[in-house]
Structures
1.
Amino acid sequence: MYSQNNEEEIIVKFFKGSSTGTFLDIGAYNPFKFSNTRALYEKGFKGVFVEPSPTLKPAFEKAYGQDEKIQLLPLCIGAKNGVVDFYNACGDAVSTTIKEETVRWEKGLGVKFELLQVEMVDVPTLINRCMYRTFDFINIDTEGNVFEILEQIDPVALDCQLMCVEWNSQNKQQYEAYFARFAMQKLLENGENLIYART
């Protein structure tokens, strides 16, 4: 299993019987470790990986660089377009554009961050750059600005059937209100992630 917890089990079960589909993985981190999309890829799904860390880029190029059905975009996603400070965790899964997020990882686990300048785009700009325009599954795992990204997404317009978002047990009412707007049903809640499906 590639997922951090049991997310993969829920995701694969939801798409049971389907060997085709499209995913969008924002904050992809690693082709295998903690991946909520690798199992779908192995089933035959195609998709877009979005990961701004230059440290992590070679692993994605090795795993997917020869696959024409996969697109790799080295971007940050947020509420604006432009160049932003990016705190690169140099291989750890906690790179972020939010300075406050680095403090808890530096103090708690001794993670070292490298300050870089990277391109940030909003979701409409991201979709325009993607080789696909609809996504059966969307995964969002960024550090500190997940909801900022999520609230720009219309799952109906993107024909999205299933979403997994990192919430880290914070702002539950905010997430519930968002998914209620689209009549999406919760399939999983754990300490790190929420999974919702369109009904």
2.
Amino acid sequence: MIEIQKIGGYLEIDKDGFIIKKASADKFQEKWKPVIKEIKNAYIEHFGDKLHSVYIRGSVAKGEAIDGIADLDSIAVVNLPNEQIDIKWKEELNKQIIDKYPFIKNVEIVAGTLEHALSKNRGVHIILKTQAVCIYGNDISDSITKLKPGKESALHFRNLQDELQKTIDFFENGWGDTLEENLDKCSWIMKRVLRTGFELVMEREQKYTRDLYPCYEGFVKYYPEKKDEIYKTLELAVNPTDDSKIIIPLLKDWLIFMPKEIEKFFGFK
């Protein structure tokens, strides 16, 4: 059981109100450098000359990774049509990396087209501009327009209603094949809810973060009536369960609440 701690923070904002990226290869912690190299080489091996660029994001990119909690999140941009991008190999790589580096909680392997990476309709451009560092190829983040806290930098609210319903269905209708899959599903949706909650208030806060505790703290400031629910969401993001009797009622509560607030602030569900 991991204790909930008041850790994490906000990205700096420049004098014109734009978010300053904190991610930098200079901030990689020493113990993470070998595994970052392995991830890069795996992308090179599988995509070859079709690989445009590779990025590391999240706490590892900021030099703030915590053993046993932090995931290694990566993104590749490739010169292939979307239907030809194959990352079936990611599951085996994930297992190999976690076995070799037990301080890593999970490895995220994602690949997409250059068009998707630059499209404002996809949201990947927000990740590259605010939280990712290029470790291979030509960095496209410099070509992306600067972002301010608010609608233009909000990412996690997209499709939340569908994702909540799909996760409810998942836990109501059979679950995954393994306990690990169930725990990952629980943690993932709870993080999504927390980060969406902060996106509802970040324009008012004029702050930007993806860190879980600051997301909780910012949300509670404007929605004190939801303090119990959002704290339980934080707990399950850090210490997930596969108990559907715990997960489903909480997600159903958010399924009622979140779409209304998203529509209020973003203009659609």
3.
Amino acid sequence: MFLQQTFVALGRSLPAVIAPAIITDLHLAPAWIGVYFGVTAFASLVVQLGCGSFIVRYGAMRMSQIALVLLAIGTALATLGTPLTLILSAIIAGGGGAVSTPASSHLLARCASPRYLPLVFSIKQTAVPAGLLLAGMLAPQLTESTGWRTTMLLSAAACVVYALMLQPLCKIFDTDRVPTRTFHLSDFRATLTSVIGTPGLRALSFACLAFNGLQATVTAYFVVYLTTIGYTPVAAGFVFSVAVGVAVPGRILWGWLGSSYVSPLVMMAGLALGMAGSVALLAMCSTGWPTLVVGLIACVLSATALSWHGILLAETARAAPEDMRGSVTGGVLSFGQVGALALPLMYSGLLDVTGSYGIGFVMCGVPALLVGVLLLRQRGPAKLY
């Protein structure tokens, strides 16, 4: 599941990391990035709301394979470079990749000890920064030497190869699938009802909206932003990859603390306040700031805005009925996709109106600040459920 999500994170973040090359080659405005990732988030939202029945019917491992193949198709479509294929790329890659987390949550919640769910989910979710790290380290170099289209096609090929490698594991891990389970349009409503109707899941959904929206905005605009304050695309990609590397041990540390020493609720509140503060500092960066200072700010942002997933997903799986973990996880994550849709689009609009990258970062950090304050006002984990 770690490797599955690594390839998904790599493929989904690739357009942002090599965005300068794509923008230059296709003569696009920088605001296009927000539109692309907004469409991706909308497709993810729809798929995550309705994927629960498919996970139950076909199995978590099989759906992981399907997610990788769809992501590969979407990534390859982007290389055609037309407006239509870019939109189709965002829809197919966003929708396909969105299945990966609910599928892995379904599988791991069944196999792991409930006590250590935050740690287990955090280890699995280190795949996201691992994928971003690979994208930041390899993609700019490959793009310079072979072109952005070849880079995208190599990523697509890697997803297909790993999907084939998962085939033998289907017999082992998909033994709980229910072949008679069918998909109904009412599944969307049932998932929303179960999430909104449960106080704990409702709180987690709002947190997911704020966190995922900020993460999507930072991922989409970080490299481009650094190029506006004097960094080359390769240097910006290097800073991005170094910062993202911090999220790998960060997620494991937060998961370990949340499993043994600190209430997951308090942990999420601290991460929310940390990401709001660090993104505000990032907005203040300008030409002439020492690379070390910019890098430190980026590392703190990575350790918070890119490191919350394991805690939140573990709490979601713990609060969900046993036979609905995949669908409930998808429901909570669908609110995250609302954030990933709304905040990059808001950022894109602010950038178009003001011409300032910093204002957008500050505004996108406000929801996380509100979440941190609201979670601190709770009086212990029991109130979350």
4.
Amino acid sequence: MKIGPVELGERPVMLAPMEDVTDASFRLIAKESGADMVYTEFVSADALIRNIAATTRKLEINPAERPVAIQIYGREPDVMVEAAKIVEEARPDIIDINFGCPVKKVAGKGAGAGLLRDVPKMLAITEAVVKAVNIPVTVKTRLGWDHDSRIIVDLAERLQDCGIRALTVHGRTRSQMYNGEADWEMIARVKENPRLSIPLIGNGDIKTREQVENAFDRYGVDGVMVGRASIGAPWIFSELTGRGALDVHTQFNLLRRQIHESVERIDPLRGILHIRRHLAVTPLFKGIPNFKARRIQLLQTPDPETLLRLIDEVEHEFYP
């Protein structure tokens, strides 16, 4: 599979863009574990053109994580064009446009999945961004706004006509948020459209190697994107890409690495706050009996050294 000049090999598995998750450390671990391409956190076009420091930091790329896509979102064509030009200067391999984020603070303001209710503006943004930059532009979106407006088959054609080089479809509507099951049959309908010639990447509920293979074999997608299953477990790509699951002690070491790098990148307090999202869902702590009190300790500890000590104790006690 290729996106413009970016060669991703056969049956690529990619890390999805996720706010407060896919920072540089997380992306690099995912890449080292087998992810064929990684995506940054969402980058607000409005914040980027205002030169907000926390937003511009999201443009920092480690050469070791390539190929990498920077994803932007916004609701006005001129702002998105200006932001795309700034992003291009950061030299990502791809610029991805977010037309899929369902959260109220994004979609409710007419950006992300909110543009599924204003397709002409979505297309205007897409065409303008494609024309403004010299690197491949891709789009990530959903099936539609709700069950009665699943427009993705026709929309995919129209986005292709705007010049995008690949399309990622999350198999839910905006109204579903992340509830229910992703509709891969609908994703397959997009792929079956004879007019669609760009690569199609499927996204939604992928957690196992078997599901990855099924996405390719049954639904015919060109690539698979994995999001929530990687939170707290960026090493999952080793299993999903067929390399085999990493042993548990390697996983613990990678979790410790995330903590160190989060603290170094931000500061001790905010670095710990950032990593709590991963601690809350990591499979390393699932299934351990009578673990509630220990979990509370792990999630409330503000000190990096104490947190690392507690993690060491869990590893030695439950994974000797």
